[in-house]
Each structure stands twice: as C-alpha cells, then as structure tokens.
Amino acid sequence: MDTTTQKPAAPPAPGPAAPVDSSAARGVTRPGDRIFLGLSRGSGILVLVLMAAIAAFLTYRASLAISKDEANFFTTFEWNPSGLPPEFGIAVLAFGTVVSSVIAMVIAVPVAVAIALFITHYAPRRLGGPIGYVIDLLAAVPSIVYGLWGALVLVPHLDGLYGWLDDYLGWTGILEWNDGAPRSLFTVGILLAVMILPIITNVSREVFRQVPRMHEEAALALGATRWEVIRMSVLPFGRSGVISASMLGLGRALGETMAVAMVLSPSFTISASLLDPGGGTFAQNIASKFNEATEMGRDALIASGLVLFVITLLVNGAARLIIARRKEYSGANA
Amino acid sequence: MAKRIDVSGLNAYYGSFLAIEDISMTIEPRSVTAFIGPSGCGKSTFLRTLNRMHEVTPGGRVDGKVMLDDENLYGAGIDPVAVRREVGMVFQRPNPFPTMSVYDNVAAGLRLNGKYKKSQLDDVVEKSLRGANLWNEVKDRLNKPGSGLSGGQQQRLCIARAIAVEPNVLLMDEPCSALDPISTLAIEDLIGELKERFTIVIVTHNMQQAARVSDRTAFFNLAAVGKPGKLIEIDETERIFSNPSVQATEDYISGRFG
C-alpha cells in the first residue's frame, strides 16, 4: 500500500527555465489515466485514513479506561472495570493469546508445509488436485462451526492425549495434567491449529508451485534425491512465502473469538501447566463480556483490544524484518 | 576420470510420443562432442537421457542402452541419483541456487555426497572456481549470493559447481545461448581446458561454436514435426563441416534448410 500512495507523489521535476517544454515533456494526460490515478491514489489514502481512525478511536477510548484503572494495567490478574475502585489488567489475556497462538503455530506450520510439499512434489497429480481442493474447502468453514466441533468432539476426546503428555512430558511442569477438564489453553491451541492449517497450506502450496523448474533441475543434476531437491531449492525459495503464510495464520489465531470462547473455560488466572483449564484471550474476553459491560467496562475492553492491535502490528513487523534481512538471497533476483 | 559413453538402440518418449528413435553412438573420453540440428530434433532430449534427467519430466521414458565404460546406466538396480553424481550437467540458462552464496553453490554437490572438513571444502571450492576460470573474479565475494554475478559469471559458477564433484562426464545444454559474445568466448576457452579431464558433450545451435570447440559432431534431424528425431550422422567435426557423408547434413550446415 505504500508504493501506490508514494510513487505518484514524486513528480518529475520540470526545469523552470523551459516552461513551454515542461508540459510537452510530461506528455498528453488522458482523462482515463487521470481518473484511474485518482481512484487508486484515493483507495490507498483511504486505507491509511481508516487505519489511523481505528487507532485513534482505540487509543482515545482506551485512555479513558486506563486513566481510571486503580491497578497496573499490564500486570494485574483481574478484570473488574466496574468495581469500586475499578481494577483490571491484561496480563492473563496477553499470556493466553500469545501462548495459544504459539501452540497453534508450532502444530500447524510444520504440518501445513508438509501437506503443501506433498501436494506439489510427492503426490501424483490425480491425488494432489483433490487434496488441495478439500483443503480450500476447509478454509471456508466458518469459525463457529470449528467452535462447535471443538466443544462437542475435540474436548471430550482429549483425555488420552492429555494422559500421554502427562506421562512423558509431565515432568517439565508446563505439560502436567492435574485431571481438570481439558478446556485449557493447550486445547485452544490445538483447535486454532486446525483452523489456521488451511490458509497456511494454501499459500505455501502456491509458493512451492512457483519454484522455477530450473532451480529444481540444478539440484537434481548434482545428484540430489527428492528430499535434497526440496531442501536445496524448494524450501529456500519458498521461505519468505511460508513466513508470510504463517503470519496470515497467526493473525487469524490471535484474533479468533468464537471458537476460543466455546472451548475454553475462562478465568483470570495463569497456571503453570498449559493443560490446566482457565486463562483467556483478548478476543474471547471481549466477546464474552461486551454485551453486559457498562460504559466503563466497554472502554476497558477497548483498551485490551488496543493491546491486541499493537501485538498484531509487532508480529507483522517482525515477520517483514525476517523476510527483508535475507532479501538478496531470495529467489526474486534470480 | 573421463569415461567412454556407448549408446545403442536408444528411444526416448514423452508419454506415448516417441521423441527420439533408435540412437546409437560412441562418445570418446577426453574429447568434446557437439550435437547440432534444428529445434525439436531431440538433441537436448538425447543429452538428458545420458544422465537420466529425461525421466524427471512428467511422462518421460527411455528404453535402450547407455554404457558408461562397462556400466549400463539403464540397467536394473542402477540408482538415477548415483548416475547424476557421475554425469554432471550445465543448463541453457545459468541456474545457480539463488539462496546460496558463491561458495555454497560450488560446495553444494560435495555436501550432498557426505561430510567434508571445512579445509577440504575450501580446497575443492578454490580448485573448482579456478577450473572454471572464475576464481580471480569472485575470490573476494565468496560469501555474496551467486545470483548477484553477471550472466557469464553465473554460467561459469554453474560449471564450477558441476566439476566440483569430479564427474566422469560433463553435459552442456546450449550453455552459451543466454550469454554475450565475450562470456561465450570465456566458456568456449574453458571447454577446451576441461576436455583434458572430462568427457564433454555439448548441445549447441551455433554451428561456428560446434566447429570451434568440438572434436566430433553429431547431426540430428527430424523428418517432419510430430515425427521422432534421429541421428543422421556423427563424425570428426572437420569432416562434418567440410565434407559430410549425408546430403541433409550439408544442407543444414550450409543454411539450405528451414
């Protein structure tokens, strides 16, 4: 969006000494060009204005709430904005949002990359097409449906997995199961992983498909096996695309609302073990409290929304940095 | 290291389409053999059957025999991956790995073959880059991306990458067609040096190039579009360009051919 708004903003500097020539140098401006320029520049500016307006709205309402907060907004394990005095903090929400999204990424990204590689490089064409189509369909399933599935199917079937994790990884503390209902951040992470799997798979698949044939043949001709071809030419070429795909998935995971609300049993606590029920996320907390909130309560929820907004921006910025850092090694300048 | 190639009764298919038919020829070690012929006559396809690259194309299939000294490349139990480690290839468009540095590009083949000490790799990289007449141009930028070099340098980098694993045969598929005349000259000089060590097969559309670099020349042709390509004749390059034994060859090299 930067390029569309900035490029036309740099006019060719006409020499002031030759005013007659300068209009000729610019050439004939046709009405169609002017209209299209106006439309595209206007759209670009509109996006920026909208972003600024959202940020301004969030910041204003958030500041109203935070100025009245009697507790530390960042470290308090409590959400009582309508109390006397009002005390609320985002520590639990930030922890829950980040942890559940990280769990989702850890599960989904390797699986998605593996599926994408299978479709593009291993499966026979007759099989790869239908698999890709089914995964496209998965991306279109509404999140409320995932929430229903999570609550009615996933949660009742997790005892086995939880027991296994407790047996083998319980000693770490963070995966210790204290026999609570499996409505934990870990379960949320699994559900989010299923939800973001299709989008990461789809984008990765398109990227892997675009790996130039000649890069793969270069590896093949050196005597690379199929896996070595993937390691030497496909994965490096697709790296930035996979990162972008993961960020799309992460964005969805961070902001997911209904599915989280239906699976988690929320509480304003942070447990040592990810398998303990309780915790919360920004989006889930806003959705479940917004309807019954007072004016002050709404402002407090908006303040938490602002934090989510900032986290999302930071994550995207970090991803862009990662991609830019190795730009000269990307496939783009080949 | 250089080995003799002996091809007999080789057919190559794309699906059910027979692309080249019944090719037999012998390619001598430590020599340069050039393949010439009109587009679509199957010379690149034939080249790719010599390191089992033809079969990676969807539908690609080969029958016949390719003997590398006394080993049939299409024999039972032969691993195509092992064949490609023995028969190196340079492509029409320079294709260094874009995500790798100059150094890593040259070392890529060795790293596939096993573990090497850093000092061993350093030696091979320098030797290969010197062998490809590229060392002096890149020795200060070994850690820069290979895709940042000029086209001619990239192609020599690809040659360095191919010879780093000490193959027995080096196949070149129109290696200069994307390069300017100066870079082309550099590659041709290089081919002259490399034939001391390797068996070299080069496909080219440039007949002057075939005349300049090769010891023997094979002329391929096809009867019509949709018909399979065939080997018309193979002989000493001098003879092919002065007094070929088949009329079609003379028509082609003298330009009396579409």
TrEMBL record, chain B:
<keyword id="KW-0067">ATP-binding</keyword>
<dbReference type="InterPro" id="IPR003439">
    <property type="entry name" value="ABC_transporter-like_ATP-bd"/>
</dbReference>
<dbReference type="InterPro" id="IPR027417">
    <property type="entry name" value="P-loop_NTPase"/>
</dbReference>
<dbReference type="InterPro" id="IPR005670">
    <property type="entry name" value="PstB-like"/>
</dbReference>
<keyword id="KW-1278">Translocase</keyword>
<dbReference type="InterPro" id="IPR003593">
    <property type="entry name" value="AAA+_ATPase"/>
</dbReference>
<dbReference type="InterPro" id="IPR017871">
    <property type="entry name" value="ABC_transporter-like_CS"/>
</dbReference>
<keyword id="KW-0547">Nucleotide-binding</keyword>
<dbReference type="GO" id="GO:0005524">
    <property type="term" value="F:ATP binding"/>
</dbReference>
<feature type="domain" description="ABC transporter">
    <location>
        <begin position="5"/>
        <end position="247"/>
    </location>
</feature>
<dbReference type="Pfam" id="PF00005">
    <property type="entry name" value="ABC_tran"/>
</dbReference>
<protein>
    <submittedName>
        <fullName>Phosphate ABC transporter ATP-binding protein PstB</fullName>
    </submittedName>
</protein>
<keyword id="KW-0813">Transport</keyword>
